[in-house]
Amino acid sequence: MSTHREIKFVKPPEGLPTADCFETIEVPTPAPADGEVLVQTHVLSIDPYMRRAMGGGRNQYQLAPGATMIGRGAGVVIKSRHPGFKEGDAVQSEFGWRELTILKGDGLRKLAPDLQPLSSSLGIVGQSGATAFVGLHDIAAIQPGETVVVSAAAGAVGSAVCQIARISDCRVIGIAGGPEKCRHAVEDLGFDDCIDYKAGPIDDALAQAATDGVDVYYDNVGGEILEAVLDQTNEGARVPICGQISQYNSESKTGLRNVHLLLDRSIKIQGFRIGAYLERRDFALEQLLQWWRDGRLEYRETVSVGFETAPAALINMLTGGNYGKQIVKVV
Amino acid sequence: MSTHREIKFVKPPEGLPTADCFETIEVPTPAPADGEVLVQTHVLSIDPYMRRAMGGGRNQYQLAPGATMIGRGAGVVIKSRHPGFKEGDAVQSEFGWRELTILKGDGLRKLAPDLQPLSSSLGIVGQSGATAFVGLHDIAAIQPGETVVVSAAAGAVGSAVCQIARISDCRVIGIAGGPEKCRHAVEDLGFDDCIDYKAGPIDDALAQAATDGVDVYYDNVGGEILEAVLDQTNEGARVPICGQISQYNSESKTGLRNVHLLLDRSIKIQGFRIGAYLERRDFALEQLLQWWRDGRLEYRETVSVGFETAPAALINMLTGGNYGKQIVKVV
Question: How far does the CA of residue A296 sit from the closest CA of chain B (Å)?
Fold first, then answer.
């Protein structure tokens, strides 16, 4: 019987995940039943929400210890018992951390043949891009000429936010950690400006970059940066909250001290998950694919090679080691 | 030349306003120009936003020292040079703290003759009711069967929130200060339950009252109560912020420590002012008038008699001395 590897979640971390939170096991490879396909994982998507799912501290969404790690992937059908798929078709779905996976064919997303590398279907033309799109258009309703600020600017969602906001003729200001990421954001990704939060409080730099105030803050980090950007919002500002990465590994709770601004300036803050916007996600994916084909989307990724490197890739992403989408290349 | 009294704003208070923040003056009464009407003030509306407008501490919206105090009123036309109004017509508008006031006829709201007492046009069938309506329907989009929590439950907006949410078949839980206000909320206003925040932390009582969790929190107070209610919200909860009365008189900033819940539970928090929803306000006023005529709106008010009592009425309202709308009866 043939086997493949999977990586299990063993226990919630205290703070940053460590290698012993995971275990790689060898399991028998099942055959697809009627209506199913067997898919070989080519690339795995590594995302901030995974830290939250692992629990510990005050993270609420606990994956059960012993379960296979969650995560989206893209790969190729190697056996099909569904009429809509044949061997060689590229697909993208929730794979979990598995080298091979059985998926139902109904509802499975088949990828356009020209979408190469496959990893882009997980990033700018995939979940990260769609998450940026829905946050900007459905939660924040960006308008041309507005000033959009995004944190984790050099990350997968942050860099997609930049592309989509630029296409809507917004001014886009990034917040990222370190001078090299800021340089990358401006020179490679097209940000109008980028502020290094590791250089100290961002207030002065933000005031200089956002001379007309902040209309939209796309929040990927929470904590003190959320507070600092809120201070410089305009009347009617919108704040989609997509991530709170600064909070995931921390036991301390930084209170938001300027919450009174929500009333003073009629601000909307809204946490959202892309899974609640499936119809708009699909619309966004179509739009992003079009822009991608037109060459309008700048895009970078950080690739970790080898299935067994997935835990290390997750830790790398959580500590800001990635530029753009953090990917694990499995084959 | 005839004269009338006005009350000026003298200086921002530190903390709670005091009598010396105001000055009563005698001024000449002007004649209406073409297109204008002269109105005699019958009742003045006393509202939490006035404290914010007075500035001091971190309140942002400063009324200029020396300006006439702002405030809505209802009264009767005593001279008209506008074809749409005649002597004896009842109207409602921004009067300022004036015994007599000149208003432009264009756009001036004429009151239905059966809307008595005139003060109701400032409360449940006026700005307070419309503010409750827009927060519940436009910001929070309440649905039948949902659990709605409202703070300052026995106040003008809080009691209107109860009426409107009940009409939408919501379960309505109030938060108010002291056993007498809580009794009033349940027995007179129709709240399903009411929690006395002065009796200690509200967590246990809220958990018992909101057994299905909180879907909508209509926030009039901010601070620790906002934090405590957020803790018990459901996925997809909505929090219209209409007031932050606990914060207006305070220099301290209570940080919101559970802001991470916004993402964890896809919560929307939105500050709003009724002035940004004029079309919906007018719709709300029509609807409220209909419900009023049908006898569906429970309503109380606290009346302070005499124009010169307006400052004392404001201080009374800010310290929670009112049941329902705080009104100043001028004539």
Answer: 30
Q: What pLDDT score was predicted for residue B330?
A: 97
B172-204 confidence digits (pLDDT tens): 999 999 999 999 999 999 999 999 999 999 999
Element (H, E) at A229: helix A223-230
- Its pTM stands at 0.91
Return the C-alpha torsion angle B202, B207, B212, B213, nearest 10.
50
pLDDT for B52: 86
- What pLDDT does B96 receive? 97
pLDDT value of residue B138: 97
In total, the C-beta contacts within 8 angstroms joining chain A to chain B are 97
Q: In this complex, which of B261, B263, B266 lies closest to A276 when CB atoms are compared?
A: B266
Q: What is the pLDDT of residue B252?
A: 52
DSSP B79-90: EE-STT--TT-E
Task: Output the CATH code of domain B3-123+299-329.
Answer: 3.90.180.10
β-pairing, A193-196 with A214-218? unpaired
Q: Give the span between the Cα atoms of A327 and A45, in whole angstroms.
A: 5
Q: Which residues of B touch A (CB under 8 A)?
A: 52, 58, 60-61, 222, 226, 236, 241-244, 247, 253-273, 276
The predicted structure's pLDDT at residue A167: 98
CATH topology agreement for domains B3-123+299-329 and B127-275: no
Q: Which of B47, B259, B267, B273 is the best residue to mutate to test the A interface, defined by the most A CB atoms within 10 Å of its own CB?
A: B259
**Per-residue model confidence (pLDDT) at position B58:** 59
Predicted confidence (pLDDT) per residue in B284-326, tens digit = 999 999 999 999 999 999 999 999 999 999 999 999 999 999 9
Q: Are B176 and B196 in contact (CB under 8 A)?
A: yes
Q: Which residue of chain B is at minimal alpha-carbon distance from A269?
A: B269
Please identify every stretch of chain A with a pLDDT value under 50, giving residue numbers as ranges.
none
The closest alpha carbon to B71, from B152, B21, B113, B8, belongs to: B8
In the 8-state DSSP scheme, what is residue A287? H
Q: Which of A223-232, B229-238, B244-253 comes out lowest in average pLDDT? A: B244-253
The reply to whether residue A58 touches residue B260, judged by beta carbons under 8 angstroms, is: yes
- pLDDT, tens digit, 9 for 90 and up, residues B86-136: 999 999 999 999 999 999 999 999 999 999 999 999 999 999 999 999 999
Residue B25 has pLDDT above 80, yes or no: yes
Q: Do B262 and A255 touch (CB under 8 A)?
A: no
Chain A positions with Cβ closer than 8 Å to B? 52, 58, 60-61, 222, 226, 236, 241-244, 247, 253-273, 276
For B62, the closest chain A residue by CA position comes to: A264
pLDDT beyond 60 at B251: no
Class of domain A127-275: alpha beta
* Of the candidates A211, A207, A205, A212, the residue with the CA atom closest to the CA atom of residue A182: A205
Contact B69, B9 (CB under 8 A): yes
A273 and B266 within 8 Å at the Cβ level: the answer is yes
Pairwise CB contact (< 8 Å): B264 & A255: no
Contact B149, B176 (CB under 8 A): no
Please choose, from the candidates A155, A224, A238, the residue with its C-alpha nearest in 3D space to the C-alpha of residue A191: A155
**Domain with residues A3-122+301-329, CATH architecture:** Alpha-Beta Complex (3.90)
Nearest-by-CA chain B residue for A277: B266
What is the least distance, in Å, from the CA of B196 to any CA of chain A? Answer: 23
Domain boundaries, chain A: 3-122+301-329, 127-275
